[in-house]
Amino acid sequence: MGRYILRRLIQVPVGLFIVGSLAFLLIHAAPGGPVTALSGEYATAELRQEIEARYGLDRPLGERYLDWMGRAFTGDLGRSYLHKAPVMSVILERLPATLSLVLPAALLSLVGGAAIGLWSTPPPGAPRRVLGPLLALVGHLVPTFWVAQGLVLLFALTLGWFPVQGLDDPRLTAPSLADRARHLVLPVLALSLHQLALMALTLRAALRLEVVRPYMTTALAKGLDFPRARFSHALVNALQPVLAVLGGRLGATFVGAIAVETVFALPGLGRLIVTAAVNRDHPLVLGIALSVCAVAMVGNLLTDLTMNRIDPRMAIDRDEAHAA
Amino acid sequence: MTRCHLLLSAFLLALTAPFAVAQQPQTVVAAVSADPGHLNPAITTGSPTHAVADSLFNGLLSLDEKGDPRPDLAVRWALSEDGLRARFELTRDAKWHDGRPVTADDVKFTFESVLLRHHARTRASLGPVLEAVDAVDPATVEFRMKRPYPALLQQLDVTEAPILPRHVYGEGDIERNPANLRPVGSGPFRFESYAKDDRVVLTRNTAYFKPGLPRIDRLVFRVIPDGATQAQALTTGEIDFIGRVAPSEIARLQGSGRATLADVRFGPGGGNCIMTLGFNLERPALQARQVREAFAAAIDRRQFVERILVGHGRIADAPISSGIAWAHAGGTFPASLFDPARARALLDAAGLGPDGEGVRLTVDLVQFASFGRYADLLRNQLGAVGIRVRPRLVDPAAMVDAVFRQRNFDLTLVSYCNGSDPEIGVRRMYVSGNIGNIPFSNAAAYRNPEVDALFAAAGSTANRARRAEAYRAMQRILVRDLPYLWLVETDFTVAWKADLAGFEGWSGQFAERAGRR
Asked: For B22, which DSSP code?
């Protein structure tokens, strides 16, 4: 087990090197550079050259790549051209907003998705419950951007229950938890819907296989009622494929966060990467790519370890055997 | 179960209950479309920085709604007969936010060490003509010019030339000065806090040198990138002011009855903008004047005003904006040019007959994705006479790269802002010395020695009548040569909550005089 974790951890820098190199190539293959955003509309040729010299844009690409990669491996992601500050601090400033959006959304999609998944799995032989899965399917298909707009239209503009945008009310001079919660309801709903639907659909599919297995018959024969047996026996076994699907979808959540942060004007990472890319802020784009990738790799590792915990027959032991 | 329901409804009630606690009555929340990044307006022309930071600083002068100068830090000014010297007398009441007095030395430092190096527009306009700035005494500065510069007084407002305190910004590399994030200015508001991508909070400068101003206690800028969200937030009362309303949201705000709307020709960092279609004159197919005239005859500019600007702008009837009234040669490029039959005849005469599908000519159109509705109209109107347009909608960096560096385009659509004087924003798009890898320069690659000479003549005298004559002659030549088609003059629409008043939407210091109605 220890060796397995060690080996997986060694893979992280290798993966980051590959992703970093690809991202470097991609961002430099995009037409145009940061000069337009830095010089503004009325630049002279001289000013353009000065900007290129100041940020080292006049050096050969290979040299810039080696320089950047060398620094990145010592933990120095460089300075953002536009924010005129270290990349890491620019990223860390955006983290609280993204986390206050992503974490509640993850929790809601897990719990809500599990509830719908459980509810729409009837005992074998009973009529199928299609309403939950149908709604989940629709929720899974509608783009997050639309969901967000729809929620604003209904709950903010028509009913006036929640604010249209922001993390809190800038007129309040002291921060208020209730105000913050009120501002987060619609964005969290919008972001979680997609994952919630996926959770419900995968769990239902997995549960339908589990509820016909002999251990369920045994549990029911011992006198357990169906909902309880479904919850305490079938659910644990069905969780495994669900986690495998959800654990690998961190990237999708991030893409959803871009849309939600834009619609609700939240100061998070999703919006940061859009403006960084549009302005060709190379160090910042690369820094975000590496950070997101690192989080995703660690997330995958944690998922695998959790799955091993749920089902000890999982791959790790066999992996070890092959490795030996 | 009942208890659970009770708890749930109590929770929901708590969330939706209106909050009456600690509401500050004199806070104004203004929406800005992008994060400023930093708050030093002297080292950038970026509008996100200026939209916020201009309220923290002052220029020597400010501009009124028509673009004419009025006092800011300077209370009196005088130009010498020969136009080579300009003297400014500073107010003695102005203090930096840290309490130290504003002096002529600060002005000298700001121009010579900061603006002429880092502020792209001021560098391009004043750089070639400014000899030196002298601090005559602590309250008097004199500008010495290499040659008369007619647009000087239009270049000294807080957006073009914000004055910085030397004792704060004078040491080391200004790009890394910590005060770029914790600015110290002299303006109506002082800096309180900045949360990136979220908000900038400013508070009233109680020691401001203009008596009775500002009238509001707090000015908060909220970063809201989406134009629709901005408008929605204004109708629900979450924000109070929008500096540039997206054209698609104007009707919604008008219909809400909660906002006051005003059209201005200027905004911080640009004004008197003309949406312009540029021909790449290096492409053989577009070198015949007949062909370019056919484009002019095929385009119905009224539709651009009606459908895209929904009335907030007008047909550009001359190459120079009607906002610079003394230089504008109105009627030289009239709306009556629209004549599709004539467009077809001109194309026939140029040897561009229709093929089997009715297509006479295929051109690409490289432009910002945000101007997509212009591309749609152009494609329809030009398509009707047999010119097939292939739009390439890209982001600003890619557009600049394709048009100005690679010169890989047939047509391009650029919003050229003329500014308050033709020297600032008109010259750059026509003179032959400004072609090449420079953003928003002479996109057409138009070369005409006569036009170069007229710009040189108009730019080296302070005599407005002689300048006007040169600009009028130049516009007649441009309309004859048609390196560009001037489509529409676009206005900025500003909106604020109906119970407020006094906003000056054309100025960087838009909230200096704002308050309750």
From this structure: T
Q: Give how far Cα B450 sits from Cα of B446, B480, B481, Å.
A: 12, 13, 12
In this complex, is the C-beta atom of B427 within 8 Å of any C-beta atom belonging to chain A?
no
**Between chains, do A33 and B397 touch, taking CB under 8 Å as contact?**
yes
CATH class of A2-30+77-323: mainly alpha
Q: Is the CB of A172 less than 8 angstroms away from the CB of B21? A: yes
**Direct distance between the N- and C-terminal alpha carbons of chain A, in angstroms, rounded to an integer:** 13
Q: Which residue type occupies B15? A: L
- From chain B, pick out residues whose CB is under 8 angstroms from the CB of A176: 19, 21
Is B220 in the A-facing interface, judged by CB distances under 8 Å?
yes
- Tens-digit pLDDT profile for residues B410-435: 999 999 999 888 988 899 899 998 88
Residue B369 predicted with pLDDT over 70:
yes
DSSP B328: -
Closest CA to A176 of B335, B109, B21: B21
DSSP A79: B
**Longest alpha-carbon distance in chain B:** 90
Segments making up each domain of chain A, as ranges: 2-30+77-323
Please tell me the least confidently modeled range out of A131-145, B208-222, B355-369. A131-145
Both tokens of residue B255? Answer: 């219909």
- Convert A278-296 to b/e letters by CB count within 10 Å (16 or more is b): bbbbbbbbbbbbbbbbeeb
- How many separate helices (H) and strands (E) can be counted in chain A? 15, 0
Q: Are B319 and B332 in contact (CB under 8 A)?
A: yes
Select the residue of A32, A43, A152 nearest B438 (Cβ to Cβ). A43
Cβ–Cβ under 8 Å, residues B235 and B251: no
Distances in Å between the Cα of A33 and the Cα atoms of A91, A94, A152 are: 21, 24, 36
Chain B CB within 8 Å of residue A35 CB: yes
Measured in whole angstroms, how far is the alpha carbon of residue B186 from the centre of its chain? 23
Residue A302 in tokens: 């944690």
The residue of A41, A95, A279 whose CB has the most chain B CBs within 10 angstroms, and thus the best one to mutate to test that interface, is A41
Spatial distance between the Cα atoms of A248 and B13, rounded to a whole number of angstroms:
37
Q: What is the DSSP letter of B428?
A: G
User: Residue B19 above 60 pLDDT?
Assistant: no
Please tell me which of the candidates A166, A263, A275 has its beta carbon nearest to residue B226.
A263
Which of 297-316 (A) contact B at CB < 8 A? none
Q: Which long-range contacts (CB under 8 A, 24 or more apart) does B457-462 make?
A: B458/B150, B458/B422, B458/B423, B459/B149, B459/B150, B459/B423, B459/B427, B460/B147, B460/B148, B461/B83, B461/B148, B461/B150, B462/B79, B462/B83, B462/B148, B462/B149, B462/B150
Residue B432 gets which letter from DSSP?
G
Q: How far apart are CA B217 and CA B210, in angstroms?
A: 15
A172-225 pLDDT per residue, tens? 877 788 999 999 999 999 999 988 898 899 899 888 888 888 888 888 888 888
Q: Residue for token digits 């370890």?
A: A305
| b/e sequence B86-125, b meaning 16+ C-beta within 10 Å | bbbbbbeebbbbeeeebbbebbbbbbebbbbbbbbbbbbb
Q: How many CA atoms lie within 13 A of B58 on its CB side?
A: 29
Q: Which residue of B has its CA nearest to A275?
A: B34
Chain B contact probe: residue of A165, A180, A264, A269 with most B CBs at under 10 A: A165
Q: What is d(CA A158, CA A139) in angstroms, rounded to the nearest whole number?
A: 22
Structure tokens at B126: 């004043």
Cα B483 from Cα B201, distance rounded (Å)? 46
Chain A nearest-CA distance from B95, in A, is: 27
